[in-house]
Amino acid sequence: MDAAAAALAAAPAAGVPPPGAAAGEQQAAPRVERLSAGVQQQLNLEGMRARAVGLYKAISRILEDFDVIARTNPSASPKWQDVLGQFSMVSMELFNIVEDIKNVSKVFVVYPRNVNAENATILPVMLSSKLLPEMEVEETTKREQLLSGITNLPVPTQIEKLKVRIDMIGSACETAEKVIAECRKSYGLGTRQGTNLGPTLDKAQAAKIQEQEGLLRAAVNYGEGLRVPGDQRQPQSLPSHLIEVLPLGDGAQNFGDSSGSYPKNTSTFAPNNVNNQGNQVQASGGQLHGRPAPSPGTTGTPNFENVSTPPMPYANSPRSGTNMMNTPSPQQHLTPQQQRQKLMQASQQQQLHAQQLRPSAAGMLAQSALPQLQDLQGQTQQKLQVPGQQQMQYNQALSQQFHNRQMQSGRMQPGMAQSQLNQGTQLRSHLGQFTGAANSAMFSAAQASSNSQMMANIPGSQSLMPQMQYGMAGGHPQRSHPQMLTDQMFGMGATNSSMMGMQQQQQGVYGNMQAGAQNMQQGMVGLQNQTQNPNFTQQRQQNQL
Amino acid sequence: MECVVQGIIETQHVEALEVLLHGLSGVPKERVRVHELCLKSGPNLGVVPSEVRLLCDLAQPTPSWTIRHVGGAMRGAGAEQISVLVRTIVESKASKNVLHYFYTLGYKLDHELLKIGFAFRFHRGAQIIVTVTSTNKMPRLHATDEAVPVTPGIQLVEITAPAAADNYNDVVSAVSAFCEYLAPLLHLSKPGHSTGIVATAGAAAASLMSSGGGKTL
């Protein structure tokens, strides 16, 4: 039905222009407006109309059949085959009609896509290209004005006359334009072009702004230009919102470039011990061995010798050597007080950096330094406790260090002050964490073990005991603690030569020890050749363990 | 996820921009004073350092902390055709211990900055947040009272809109449409792309700041 209506609507629409043309003819203007002949022929309005009507009749016939069947026999169904056949014919006819209309559709400015009952009535008006009556009147009057007086002339003449008119108007416009521009200049109103373009930035300004923009964008998005160098990173005062957030103290300041500061702190203490020559170093070594009986429960200050160097799996790792070498410092004569303060500071700082500590042992080592001084003379048994433990704990590598330390401590004077002891403590720190840890573990073990047990493990120690009375209080216990010195010696493997030099200054008693040291330098193999020194005997036992 | 565009505006025109934004959004402006700390993870947390930003909102009576992790931006041919940057973002409120917590984890402070300005939050096709701030740096660590602007004459305008993976197209179009309203005053682009300033911004700003009564010619 819609298709039929569309076809019918199209037919009357096409029919409008011809009547309009006819009406136009009746008017005064001699213009005839109608569809061009070609379009008319193609459109074939009469034929189109006939086809549309035929289609309409066919569809209505089909619908009637349905009605009849529905009325007479509601239960029966129509013969669908026939109905479908008729429907296909109808649809084919509609398709043909639409196709024919499409061929001429480009003549019309607008044509309907979808026609239904709503817009069927208005379509003729919309399809019409005829001017509205008032528009038509307007056009005719204008034409009258334009062509008045020349309409009787031939057309080319009319064209020429119109051209002349256009030129005159053009020249009038140009002069008017000039006058306006001069007036603008004289009155300072600016040129027309200037106001149109708007303000422009000169190049320098634009470049400056671009540079600033780059800075700003980089700062916001990537943080360029906002990174403060490390030396300025100590906040003097925190704003209110950070005061309670950040814990006080330097330890809380975690900065990306602070990693370099850590080893520096540790190194400042080591050189005190490495470069100390003569009595101080040796005494310290001796003092260290003099404290096999650490005071119990001293875990307050962590011994930074455990903290100072990163954990090493073996005492003979290259680090141990370099630690000793890298730590030279001009400070050689620190008072005990200063050394202790430095020790405290270093330990605090290092405490904040994750290190493997053996806190109990570390505490013991640090705290035991002082008390051991006092116990030095009389605590033979305690000193002997240590080697017993050492046997259980030390490997070949440690034994070398122990010997080295042994030689150092040979010169220990009983009267050496705390300074030596502290230096010794600091010296030990650089022999490697493992050694320090081992030492501390050793000391802790020494605490627990009984004297008698220790004595039994040291077959050769008893013979050494009388030597203590010679005034070399530090030397003897160190001999009986081969392993304690071993690890430290090994750490100072590179400095053995210097130690040797020192020891040569020693008097007599340690001749065999020097030989032992030389053997140590050559490796553990040589130790077995040292029969003179009971220490080496112990070492051999340990090596075989 | 969020859609974000950035632009710059000269400080002298910020007031005009505020007037424009107020008119477009219809909401009052909010003060912005944020102390942003950018932390980078240490080597113990992986080979590739990750970055997390802690924002402390100082405009409130009690400072509130927010953790913000900026993820990677959308890439590909489709992303290049879109005029805004779409990137993953994770934000979370946190207690004031968050800074200490991250330090303990091993994060180190990379840089910090202070943003002072105002912001407008409104809904126009999508939830949109326009922030106009002056970015300041601190000469000494955490010295927020001594902050100086990184670029005194230029302020940053940032338009962000939260989005989800399934609706980011709508959000993108909403943001783009809104950005066109700001065209007289500033150019907006993806972060990282330079735009320059609008040459005629002065005239636009002047018209915005005019008393508002109709002028007869």
From TrEMBL, chain A:
Biased composition range(s): Low complexity: 272-286, 328-350
Gene Ontology CC terms, in alphabetical order: mediator complex
Region span, Disordered: 249-350
Sequence ranges of Polar residues compositional bias: 255-271, 296-309, 317-327
InterPro entries on file: MED8_plant (IPR038795)
Name listed for the protein in its UniProt record: Mediator of RNA polymerase II transcription subunit 8
Organism of provenance: Miscanthus lutarioriparius
TrEMBL record, chain B:
Keywords assigned by UniProt, alphabetized: Nucleus, Transcription, Transcription regulation
Source species: Miscanthus lutarioriparius
InterPro entries found in the cross-reference section: Mediator_Med18
GO biological process, one term: regulation of transcription by RNA polymerase II
Compartment list: Nucleus
Name of the molecule in the record: Mediator of RNA polymerase II transcription subunit 18
Any one cellular-component term (Gene Ontology): mediator complex
Record family assignment: Belongs to the Mediator complex subunit 18 family.
GO molecular function, one term: transcription coregulator activity
Keyword Plastid attributed: no
Keyword Transcription attached: yes
Superkingdom of source: Eukaryota
